[in-house]
Amino acid sequence: MASESKFAHLPRATSSPLECPHQGPSLLHNAHFNKGSAFPTPERQTFNLHGLLPPHVQTLDEQVERAYQQYSSRGDDLAKNTFMASMKAQNEVLYYKLIQTHLKEMFGVIYTPTEAEAIRNYSRLFRKPEGCFLNIRDRGVEGVLRNFETRDEVDYIVVSDGEQILGIGDQGVGAILISSAKLAITTICGGIHPARQLPVVLDCGTDNEELLNDELYLGLKQPRVRGKEYDDFVEEFVRAARKRFPKAYIHFSLYLSEDFGLQNAKRILEKYCTEIPCFNDDIQGTGCVTLAALLTGLHVSKVKLEDVRVICFGSGSAGTGIADQISDAIATETGKSKEDAMKQIWCIDKPGLLLKSHGDRLTTSQAPFAREDREWTDAEGVDLLSVVKKVQPHVLIGTSTKPGAFTQEVITEMAKHVDQPIVFPLSNPTRLHEAQPQDINTWTEGRALIATGSPFPAVEYNGVTKEIAECNNSTAFPGIGLGAVLSRTRLLSKKMIVAASKALAAQAPALKDDTKPLLADVEDVRELSVNVAKAAIQAAVEEGLAQEEGIPGEEDLEEWIRVQMWEPRYRELKKVGREDY
């Protein structure tokens, strides 16, 4: 498309030859330019590659077939993950093309859950550094960032502090891999150029005794730094990153473990979201994709957004992030105030229903959702079943990591009051789900609309089979990031995220057949990202946040987006001198 497009001149378009300053062995060792056995004969001559490669010239598809055979021969998922990391360091295009060709199969290997094992074993599997390592004892972030000389502007930064990684807790410096993995997902799913992104780890030490006692551990061997010194470090990074890469969109992956209060993720997001374009996928990404599933469920069950009653069971960063997104959508779409919209949501955590009287025990994220104590008499319990009985919710969402919390009694009580209960047990991994989809379907006599946090097989009741949607935030954050990058939005607004959720919901298979999933599959994510980006860009333009010049109107916007999405294909190389490059 790029060669035929009127937008082929744009800097991110990939129709023109790729200028390359390398030749010989140096070229073969550069993953960005390397084509391996696919270098055509003219380029082998131009770039002095004769004798360095076998003579037969392969196609990219032939390389993918060979690489897939090698991948399949690995004994377990961690070995496959390591193989893919090695390939990424050798040949960027082949790495992404292989994943794109086998996305459904490989997604869980390059990302969650297998990436968690790679992170846990980072110091033992370490071969080659990737990304930016900042540590709190070696300040001068601005000077460090100057080491990352890039010909192209950096569009997308993912930064993690390693304290709460994929359900495995504090992994210290190994968090660089989650930053890299999230960026790989933005490329595969959203077309973010791999040469225009930067993974970052903020090494603040670790409280993981296993790492501290491991002689091979590569990070700072000291207890994790907290408080003002931590905040100052994050501040220094944000300011330096904005100075060095002024157009970059920053994707935070910063969380404090539960012992120290999950409000840290929300606090950091709230501090910077009014200053820079930034995002937190645990809060906003999970909230966005869950809201999309909810909007689909409401459409199928014929419940209006202005009337919906929602219970969120589990009120950490993910749970309150979901509640925030839902209340934002209610306010945005119905004209209600944010405060009134929040009254349609009941949040439950360890003490039970969140109440004003809990005072200082409430995190900053929980406090806005706390109910007035006068709403509940002494005789009324604040446990999940009691709240379900009183509220009679249309929607029940679980982010509690409390397996089996959605009991048969809870689900059947919910089903007494609504025709099609919308039930989302989202806790990960699978063993921590609040209920099994098959049980929910059986207890509701096949009436429930279900989405989960992990993949589950279809469920059946009385001969009717229903497919289960997965609330995978990877269907949301790459498209949101793409829209933010291409529009050069000053900020990522609530309206942009609600627009993204509506775009996701609009692609749901359940809209045409209620036995189909409430969300599109991850295999369709590239097309989803185009629609999500389009919605986010249009919202940014409407709010006056977009800074990019020349954003076209409705008729040409989709083409404008597609032309700027990176595709894993080999481009013709044009030889240039290092001084010209």
UniProtKB/TrEMBL annotation:
Keywords: Metal-binding, NAD, Oxidoreductase. The keyword Repeat does not apply. GO terms for biological process: malate metabolic process. Belongs to the malic enzymes family. A divalent metal cation binds at E258, D259, D282. The active site is at Y111, K182. GO terms for molecular function: malate dehydrogenase (decarboxylating) (NAD+) activity; metal ion binding; NAD binding. It comes from Aspergillus heteromorphus CBS 117.55. One of its GO terms (cellular component) is cytosol. Its cofactor is Mg(2+); Mn(2+). Residues 88-273 form the Malic enzyme N-terminal domain. InterPro entries: Aminoacid_DH-like_N_sf (IPR046346), Malic_enzyme_CS (IPR015884), Malic_N_dom (IPR012301), Malic_N_dom_sf (IPR037062), Malic_NAD-bd (IPR012302), Malic_OxRdtase (IPR001891), NAD(P)-bd_dom_sf (IPR036291). (S)-malate binds at N428, N472. It catalyses: (S)-malate + NAD(+) = pyruvate + CO2 + NADH; oxaloacetate + H(+) = pyruvate + CO2. Transmembrane segments: none annotated. It holds the Pfam family Malic_M. Residues 283-541 form the Malic enzyme NAD-binding domain. Divalent metal cations. Prefers magnesium or manganese. The lineage of its organism: Eukaryota, Fungi, Dikarya, Ascomycota, Pezizomycotina. This is Malic enzyme. NCBIfam families: PRK13529.1. PROSITE patterns: MALIC_ENZYMES (PS00331). PANTHER family: MALIC ENZYME-RELATED (PTHR23406), NAD-DEPENDENT MALIC ENZYME, MITOCHONDRIAL (PTHR23406:SF34). Residues 1-24 are annotated as: Disordered.
